[in-house]
Design a protein that fits this description.
Largest sheet: 5 strands, parallel
Shape: globular
Radius of gyration: 19 Å
Oligomer: single chain
Number of domains: 1
Distance between the termini: 52 Å
Structural class: alpha/beta
CATH topology: Rossmann fold
Mean pLDDT: 93
Strand order of the largest sheet: 2-1-3-4-5
Order of helices and strands: HHEHEHEHHEHEHHH
Number of helices: 10
Helix content: 40-55%
CATH superfamily: Glucose-6-phosphate isomerase like protein, domain 1
CATH class: Alpha Beta
Length: about 200
């Protein structure tokens, strides 16, 4: 029984910690940085390409999907593929969003100079404002949490949720500013529970 109690206590503690860190985002996120990110996405001339490694890659893929749902063409740029030909998909009109907690990920730094040569807009989302990936960015967005959820304060948990939550907020701001309609939502998301609900409302 004690094992069950300890497990429940651990889960409760983790969820409370993550919830409090997400709640803090609205207090410390730089408004100018977020406004700049919204403007860059909304005024893009090309596509949005998101990249990252490890857990940051998962945050990038989730953001990619969210942007696609609201009508913003977004794609995931695999770091391993990027240096082996996929950089050919990047043009000067595109926006490349690099997600890296520490801003020193070798796989991302490997093709950062190539992105600069292409003349695309580079956005880096990171905790480390003076990191190499932050310094090469046209816009740096600082997303920082005080504590990860694990006892070592090392496992990318709360920090990943912070990045996802930030982009969720950005996506909703874009929906509001672009007057994204339920009709457009249905065109992009015709299946699943969301699609069914939208169809019912339309009928």
């Amino acid at each position: 029984m004690s094992g069950v109690v300890n497990t429940r206590s651990s889960i409760k503690k983790t969820l409370e910690l993550e919830g409090s860190e997400i709640a803090r985002l609205s207090e410390y996120l730089d408004a100018e940085q977020i406004d700049g990110l919204v403007d860059i996405i909304m005024n893009r001339k090309g596509n949005i390409l998101l990249t990252g490694c490890g857990t940051s890659a998962m945050a990038a893929k989730k953001t990619m999907h969210t942007l696609n749902v609201i009508g913003v063409p977004a794609f995931f740029l695999n770091p391993a593929d990027a240096t082996n030909g996929s950089l050919g998909a990047v043009t000067q009109h595109d926006v490349v969003i690099i997600i890296s907690k520490g801003g020193t990920t070798r796989e991302l730094l490997a093709f950062a100079p190539n992105l600069q040569e292409k003349g695309c807009t580079i956005v880096t989302v990171t905790e480390k404002t003076t990191s190499p990936l932050a310094r090469i960015a046209d816009l740096m967005v600082n997303v920082h949490v005080d504590h990860e959820a694990d006892t070592f304060n090392m496992l990318a948990t709360t920090s990943t949720l912070g990045v996802i939550a930030t982009f969720d907020a950005v996506a909703i701001a874009i929906m509001e500013q672009s007057h994204f309609s339920k009709g457009q939502f249905l065109e992009n998301h015709p299946s699943g529970d969301v699609g069914d609900r939208l169809k019912e409302e339309k009928e």
